[in-house]
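Fold in tokens:
===
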Amino acid sequence: MAETYDSSSPRMRTREDLYQLIRSREQVTRAELVELTGMSRSTVNHAIGKLLTEGRVTETDMQTKGPGSGSGRPATGLKVVVSGAPVAAIDFGHNHIHVAIGDALGGLLAEQRARINVDLRANDAMDFAAELLGKLRREVGADQLSALVAGIPGPVDTKTGLVRSSTILSSWVGLAPAQELERRTGLEVHVENDALLGAFGERKAGAGRQHPTFLYIKASHGIGAGLVLGGELYKGVTGVAGEIGHTYLAGRTELCRCGNRGCLEAVVSVQSLLEQVAHTHPTVDADALTLDALDDTITHRLLNEAGRILGGVLADLCNLLNPGALIIGGELGAAGTSLLEGVEASVERYAQPATAAVVEILPAALGVRAELTGGLLLAAFRSAR
């Protein structure tokens, strides 16, 4: 995806990969970079030399070890140089808005989250997001922002910038979110699908750092996937790759927001699971119920079964793409091990053995913050171009 992860030459890609690796750690030595990446020492030294010349990283003496650890000159560590104006990100979920400002490297400075029906109130949601962003800018004194990235829970046509699917975000269809947000904020805005931002966040700062090919699944009030293939984000011809939430499940009759029955997200989603948990726990206050509030056999069984259903769909994707990992994010991914164990069981059962043997089933290391983190990191990446 040239817009967000341009790699015009192998050397530039190597340099950027090492930069991101240094950035993800407080301090790291060249020897550690060689070990972590498998690159030759000369390749690492050449790339680091360029980064030092560009002023993107700096060298500093590592802390000395304790008594008895040996003498000699301390190892030289590498750290990323923070410079430039702050960046910002907006994460639109189906029922929330999460706004944040980060430093020039995407490190979090301030954030605010609020609940609102994003699906049915597009203009209200964008107005509210712009207000929250303005409030945060005043709090941190961010007179200037170098980049703003927003993620929405639906497909955006990369050729037109328009939301096309009326079955997913009914009040957003025909709108150009980037233009709408630019008008409200006075900033240039880049818009992506939220699951793609989650994949970017996990690739740069989470569980995807060791997996150049993986699928990130945002399992929340909707189900979506972000694809990373060979280290590159993949969006498809018009930007709608990864819309797995409306995969048809044979024999299921649950009504979906799209008007069909038996869609994956109608069967496996936060709302669906909450309804099932409430039905099996009649003494619990349904209005205050959350998936992590209960720790009992029935709840674990429901989550495990949801994971098995989701895993059946993901097994087919594993056969097609042969990923190194399935990274499960969103609120369901953060709900504990039961759901992940269900996913793993179905992948082992339905994926080809050679495929199932190499894929890791992992929770998102960034948890429910993967999309917001990905937005900040992508904003920092775009501002540095």
